[in-house]
Amino acid sequence: MDCPRLGRVGYLNCLPLFYPLETGRVKVAARIVADHPAVLNKAFRQGELEVTAVSSLAYGFFAGNALVLPGLSISCRGRVGSVFLLSRIPVKELEGRTLSLTPYSATSVVLLRILLQRFYHVAPDFFTRPAGSPPEWQRPDALLTIGDEALQIAGAGRFPFVYDLGEEWYRFTGKPMVFALWVARKDFAAAHPEKLAGIWRALQEARAWAKGHPGTLAAVGARHLGLEPEFIEDYFALLNYDLDWPHLEGLLTFYYLARAEGFLDHTVALEIWGGDNERNYRLQSA
After folding, report:
1. Do 63 and 94 sit in the same domain of this protein?
2. How many structural domains compose the chain?
3. pLDDT digits over 171-223, tens only?
4. How far is CA 243 from CA 38, 53, 128, 176, 251, in A?
5. By three-state DSSP, how is residue 273 classified?
6. Are 254 and 179 in contact (CB under 8 A)?
7. Looking at the chain, which terminus has fewer C-beta neighbours within 10 angstroms, N or C?
8. What is the domain range of residue 158?
9. How far apart are the first and last CA of the chain?
10. Which residues does 133 contact at the CB level (< 8 Å), separation at least 6?
């Protein structure tokens, strides 16, 4: 294989890791493929990507074919700044009221439903708005918005009640919320361990570069969304790109609660790549 393919989700939260790679500040021996999460998930399953970012819930469905890359995630310890429940009434009053779900993130949908079902004990009337429709399509009582859209709408002031789901998760569980992982196909890892090691090292270098250049990333992100650089810099400061033990505990807790509340029908094992000369290791959800 001459050039492995590396999937890149086209949201602003991936910018800190991929801007250094895409601008040549950090070299990576891979071809970057940018697309929506669902497209990347399908391409990975079909063998059209060797390494990619995937949502935490998506990994739960194809874990048998994938290895988690250590030390890399998109996560938060408290506020995340781009996954919101926006409501016209307090969340505890949403029983039977209309709640519009985003069509763009199954992980955030399951996270919201766990929070509402297990911790708030309310059952709204859920519906999923069509892809491409505006967030307030059908004027729901509340809506779930994520990513770049969330950054732009949450501060508009049209909803009096704003719930950051990263903050809500941390309040109820005391653990980080892991929204996405980086994974490699097992067949690629077995056949080309040195190439996978090179990609992993480049991602780690990109993460280190990003930590040292917050102003540059904020300026780029601000131009992309038409927002103030200070706002973008504050947003990036909320995000974690690590995958240490507390993050793994948070991720396993998410899988456990997703299964306990009926959103997964199986336990999930995290099989973590051990490097080109090390054994992989597994962590199992309850």
Report:
1. no
2. 2
3. 999 999 999 999 999 999 999 999 999 999 999 999 999 999 999 999 999 99
4. 22, 13, 31, 10, 10
5. coil
6. no
7. N
8. 83-173
9. 38
10. none
